[in-house]
Amino acid sequence: MSTANGFYLKLRTKDNNLEIRNSINADSSFQDLLKSISNAAGIQMSNLKILSGFPRKALVFPSSETLEKCGIKCGDTLFVTEEENFNSLAPTASAPVSLTPTPTTPVLPAPQEPKTHITDNQQRNGVSGILMKKVVPSDNSCLFTSFEFVVSGKLDTSASTYMRQLVATIISSQPEEYNEAILGQPNEKYCKWITNPNSWGGAIELAVLSNHFGFEIAVVNSITGLISRFGEDKHYGQRVFLLFDGIHYDPLYMDFMEIEKIQTIFPTDDTDVYQQAEQLAEEAKSSRQFTDVNQFKIRCTICNSVFVGQLEARKHAETTAHTSFDEVHS
Q1: Is the per-residue pLDDT at 3 higher than 50?
Q2: Are 311 and 254 contacting, i.e. CB atoms less than 8 angstroms apart?
Q3: First to last CA, the chain
Q4: Which of 62-66, 80-84, 216-220 has the highest mean pLDDT?
């Protein structure tokens, strides 16, 4: 059985990094946790909203549930925000049953307008936020859709056609820089290949887009827990973040609980957002939120051949010019 001695949790609020130590342990109840956080953060329990995990999710549990059963471990980081009348306590089995009849047609909340997209730190007026993942479709164009999101703040899958054509135009205009040794195939053939909506973008496309738009693109790798920075040597003043799980890209954005805004473009000297990205990478790695590109099965939708790993699929594409693949879920 765990004891309080040595048990601690890290808290991130909009203003501070805090710790609660020795006041709770793995056998403490979820309500005990809320009380400890309320005291540490100076937020009323009724207004506490706690997020954890990857991707970030609000923690809602019965008051008597132990921290161990809630999946909260010593050393975990919890993100603490204040939201009026947010109820973190889920009803228990012994809770009284309401006698009010349930309406046959559920009442849905009014649709919310998309949050405003801001492009620099000054526009958020000193308000701190939490780095989040925006899920984009797995349609072979996830890199281009993700990049469009971090540039514009909008999820627009149709923009991938423009992004592909832009990359092809840039590569074709610089045949000496983008030669067969770099591309793995002749320049003209590669340009035709990348405009195909079934072709996957990767490091070459990231480098091209970084150079064209003048952003550093930081790719958070959930396999290794590391961050690769495209355009790092150019010393750009702004940076955007993408998350890569081995085969799929999603954009990252800063969500602000207090204001109706999101941010996707950050100064390269913003150490806070970079540290959040590093922490998110480590959380994704530890929770195995990635695809093992050496082991997953992939099927060619043209000839129905099945391959194990990205390398086999790539060789098949090079020898047959087949470029349409689906992941096989067994």
Answers
A1: no
A2: no
A3: 39
A4: 216-220
For the stretch 287-324, pLDDT in tens is 654 444 445 567 777 787 887 766 676 677 767 766 56
Of the residues 32, 74, 322, 326, only one is catalytic, namely 322
What distances in angstroms separate CA 181 from CA 101, 167, 211, 324, one per listed residue? Answer: 70, 18, 20, 24
d(CA 199, CA 202): 10
pLDDT at 122: 67
* 6-25 confidence digits (pLDDT tens): 788 888 776 677 888 878 88
* Residue 248 annotated as catalytic: yes
Q: Choosing from 139, 156, 292, 303, which is the catalytic residue?
A: 139
Any alpha helices (H) in 88-186, and if so which ranges? 142-152, 159-173, 180-183
Is 303 a catalytic site residue? Answer: no
Active site residue 322: yes
**Are 244 and 219 contacting, i.e. CB atoms less than 8 angstroms apart?**
yes
Q: Is 142 a catalytic residue?
A: yes
Query: The pTM is what?
Result: 0.60
Options 248, 250, 300, 316, the catalytic residue: 248
